[in-house]
Amino acid sequence: MIHVVICDDHAILRRGIRDTLTEAPDITVTAEASGYSELREVLRTAACDVLLLDLNMPGRSGLEVLASLRETHSHIKVLVVSMYPEDQYALRCLKAGAHGYANKAGDPVLLVEAVRVVMQGRKYLTAEVAQMLAESLSAPVVEVPHESLSERELQTLLKIASGKRLTDIAEELMLSPKTVSVYRARVLEKLQLSNNAELTVYAIRNQLV
Modified residue 4-aspartylphosphate is at which positions (predicted)? Predict the structure, then answer.
């Protein structure tokens, strides 16, 4: 039996994923968590072979959680399940230690397949991600400006581009508004932009939102 823990801050989405997985005879969902703090508590007692992890959660980002899990729970195989576009985030997650990347909008049957694949110790890649990976290996390395951003800076960019105010971003990320302002300033400097409007245009042109 494959023991799965789901970490996503949306209760309705967690339930949908749970319902999909429990239909499989070889998979059982042992626990759920709505964020990193709750996840840490859950993993102390719940059996977990595969963790389904959302990227965009309050507090620590999914990529930060990935880094922590590599140190504290290296035996757990992490399958990132996100609404973020594959062409921007799948390879980033795999490099950060994820065993696979699935899109929430995809076929539920594929999610069951993904859990089984990563449980076997293999990487789960959609055809699109596999093609991107092949192209990245053969193509000349061309780094786009936003690849130099830290995870917090990238989160700040995405939320600004989604129309959120700094105070809202601070609340969602559980940071002070002053800290978020620092991240915004760093993003503007690294991308050589001047204001939020330019940040939004940059995010749209680079298909980040």
Answer: 54
